């Protein structure tokens, strides 16, 4: 008997046997197609249902309660054995291949690392974005099965004003510091507040022009178990006089407060700032850059009052408690230096590693 005859006979004897399966099929098809539309929609809140991705915390209404017990989130001296997640954040005005290569050499497992970038809305930013995306796609491409993947990569386009000239002399001109540092602070805050997740244990601030660090950077820095910890940023260069490769200090934003610094601050108007590393405003603050001892123990720590952002490890708790990068004068400090002050006001200690070098590109 053919299928057609069977259906005709069933319709005569017991129509429910035919109607029920057809109705069930129609309902199933409706469900499948409508959930497909949802997963293709652009809404950031409409992720695919029942995802195994632990970062997929934006769920469909229906399974809308997601619990995260922040008491169980640790940031310890044994970050690796506790599988603590590290968020590496980089404001990026230009893409340097050496930065990327160094990042890929880091020995901390990529599945425990999230990356976040913020790129300015300028023509330099356009180019940085293109190069960055090409580099990311090579690593994160699901077809490249043998290449370990980062847990998540977020690239943001800045929606605020960017630093206009990226020339070294313009960036570092004393008179442009307040505006420039304030714009940088806003970019850092946007990046931080968009990417910090409920799983993040540590945030590593790493500038896009840091081209060389030890491969165990994350294990080494988290190993100190400090709330805020800065590495010492130097620069390689060719010494024309000695005719040899050499190194010199670069980042002067890691410092200890001085009596003179406090005296100058006490005489400033409310909206005036002090930026470190300029002879125009001599604070005589001890600078970590000058404390490097080539023979010394790389684990030596020193307490700091101001920090730079070139290579800075922060327990996520510090940011979660509210420490950010003030884009306004905060105790006459701004951006990363203001951040150190804010962390201290929240009760955290700020440290640096004078003998632990990382290198800034030589432009
Ligand atoms: N998003 C964003 N990043 C920037 C901007 N200007 C500089 N950067 C990045 O911010 C970091 C610090 O800036 P940089 O100019 O290197 O500071 P310097 O090394 O102290 O002169 C680097 O990673 C830059 O690529 C900007 O306007 N927007
Ligand atoms: Mg730089």
From TrEMBL:
InterPro entries registered for this protein in UniProt: Mannan_Polymerase_Subunit, Nucleotide-diphossugar_trans
GO process terms (BP): cell wall mannoprotein biosynthetic process; protein N-linked glycosylation
UniProt membrane topology term: Single-pass type II membrane protein
Claim: Ion transport is one of the keywords in the record: no
One Pfam entry name: Anp1
SUPFAM superfamilies with a match to the protein in the record: Nucleotide-diphospho-sugar transferases
Compartments in which it is found: Golgi apparatus membrane
GO molecular function, one term: alpha-1,6-mannosyltransferase activity
Glycosyltransferase keyword on record: no
Cellular component per GO, a single term: mannan polymerase complex
Keyword list, A-Z: Golgi apparatus, Membrane, Signal-anchor, Transmembrane, Transmembrane helix
Homology family: Belongs to the ANP1/MMN9/VAN1 family.
Stated name of the protein: DEKNAAC100097
Source species: Brettanomyces naardenensis
Lineage start: Eukaryota, Fungi, Dikarya, Ascomycota, Saccharomycotina
